[in-house]
Amino acid sequence: MKKLWISIVAGLLVFPMLFQAPAQAAAKPIRVIIDGVTLSTDQPPVMVNGRTMVPLRAIFEAFNADIKWNQKTQTVTASQNDTTIVLKIGSKIATINNKAVSLDVPGQNLKGRTMVPTRFVSEALGREVGWNPAAQIVTITTPVPVGGNAAPVSGVTAQDISDYGDGRDLQISFNRAADESLVDQYRVLVAKTGTSLNLSSALAVGANNYSVALVTGANPVVKLNAAARTIDGDLIKNNQGYSVYVVTVGKGNNTSALSSAAAVITLQNKAVPALGTVQATDTSDYGDGRDLSVSFNKLADESKISSYRIFVVKASNSTVFDLGRANAVSSSNYTQINKTGNNISLNLSSGSRDTDGALIKTGVSYRVYVLAVDSSNAANNVLSPASTALTLANAGVSNLNVTDVNDYNDGRDLKVTFNHATDETNISQYRILVVPVNYYSSFSLNDANNVSSANYTAVNTSGTYTEQILNSSSRDVRGSLIRNGTSYKVYVLAAGNWNNSGSNVLSAASPAITLVNTSGLSAISNLSVSDVNDYGDGRDLRVSFNHAGDESYISHYRILVVPMNYYNSFSLSDANNAGNYTTAGTSGDSTNQVLDSSAKDVRGAAIKPGISYRVYVLTVRNGSYQGANVLSEGSAAITLSAKLPVTSVTNVTYGMDNGKLVVNFTKSARESNISEYRVFVVPSKQSFGSAEALGVQSSYYRSAVPNGSNLSIAAAARDINGNPIVKGTKYKVYVLAVANSSGVQNGGLSDSSEEFEI
């Protein structure tokens, strides 16, 4: 019995000792060593869900980062060099330079201290992190930058490409540096001839006095802009000699290099010569532009011009009409003529307008100008002196207009208005002639003189103006009753009296009109817009819509691109007055149109990325309908984007599965511009960057197509050098996000995994 009690007591003494060693091992403290120095903290690091957490201020101050703490929002903002981290306590989402990243464990308050994840903070600030689970030690290492010598560019060439008289005339091209992995950017420097320049003085030039070309992997071509300056700060101009240099700016600690100078260039502005006096004469009696004949001598040298423009200016406005106003005149308000190689003489057309947009007519005093249009630069257009003042006289009518005013389906639907001739001394009456378009490709004075009295409507000369609705028995010039559905043009014949019977005068034709029972217009439907390209202009914008159900009274549709910054609302009046739009026809049931490179918004500005637009479509009536045009609702807002650089994957880890190396990672935050992921196994002592990654043979890596999920990929059996992966060699794993046609390969290589052996 005594021996039994001794055994029981001994067992009770030994039992607690069985659990003492594991308990002591679990309590082993975690240490954080930064570049060989143990991080001192007022609260020891702790492990939370497999992640080491350290006091916020201790870790950031150890990295010499600037810290801002917002007690109200529980948010820390830390900055070092060009990296800014924002981390909110309790949130699994942080940002690095405004890009969102996911955290396995959020920052949190523990025992009165704000704790943050060690690995996330360290790697975000460019440090390498290791973990020794046996020793409970986190090692953080600051990479040592590697220096190199960036090479100078070669083949620097300067060309005179325009005639603006400023930096836009100058284009510089050169061959890129041999190894662009060492290059941050290129700087194009323009120096006046005779100015000495070396690398030191080139690097000291202020940012406003050089142009930057980024590293793209191709030989750059740089077109300067109107604000471009020399290294002395002077604007670039004509008739000044220049030497052009290119500085290769080294990345990081890499040294920079200065190119040899391009051949000296002196910009020349080769404008067209001046025009002589323009002759304008009154040659007819139509009461419109056909009465006006314009002649002038061509330029002796037409090599720099593409065409001439004839401007008819009210004499009262001619004192202020200059080159700037001439260049700004709408194309609908001048007559354009291609150069012919001969002196030019022509009569204007019936629809010709003066520079204010009014139809040319009798009784108004005009002066005529001619503009020689430079083929490459509107600033070099040359304006002639004015012609002598001219007032058109007219024995015929003017301002002829016809409208559909009723729905009787006969002549009572047709209203004709016109101004009488200025001098009616020799006129006995006016004859309204309704001409069916299908039967007359032209209608002459001889045709008009031969029309039977039963087939026109006579109007006397009383007053200065006629407004006449025809009657139900009115007929066209062929004797048919006027009716709906037939297209007509209307003429007015000023018939001479017995003193002037042989001098009848025929007006110009009215616009064609088809009488209909008007029932209104409809707006388009299902309007949508999309960003389809990356040209940086209107070709990026596709507009789709369904046409109106009944297009009987529709002439065409107008696509209007409206910048939202300038229009809180966009009205029918705004749409009717817009001079910049894209026309779509009525053919088919729908329109699906990509705009062209010259497309502009309604304010006349080129369409480009980064600006928010809404698109509207205006249904435009034809001559058969007298009601208002109809404006669609606006599209959804759209901001055109350029191609975006790829973003790297994160959280690259490794593992083994049945003897095979498997790599896991968190997908890129944006996959729309990525074609594939490539997984590389790299000897740990070998340097490896984006440039090297893109050069690895396809048989030495494994790839996977993005599918919207985080991926796990079996690695290749060889490293990036083609050598088998063997035991006893240390490796790291990287993942490269590869750009597709919607992206730019600007980086994309992940951080490495932790070092490992098979």
Automatic annotation (TrEMBL):
<protein>
    <recommendedName>
        <fullName>Copper amine oxidase-like N-terminal domain-containing protein</fullName>
    </recommendedName>
</protein>
<dbReference type="InterPro" id="IPR012854">
    <property type="entry name" value="Cu_amine_oxidase-like_N"/>
</dbReference>
<keyword id="KW-0732">Signal</keyword>
<feature type="signal peptide">
    <location>
        <begin position="1"/>
        <end position="25"/>
    </location>
</feature>
<dbReference type="Pfam" id="PF07833">
    <property type="entry name" value="Cu_amine_oxidN1"/>
</dbReference>
<feature type="domain" description="Copper amine oxidase-like N-terminal">
    <location>
        <begin position="34"/>
        <end position="140"/>
    </location>
</feature>
<dbReference type="InterPro" id="IPR036582">
    <property type="entry name" value="Mao_N_sf"/>
</dbReference>
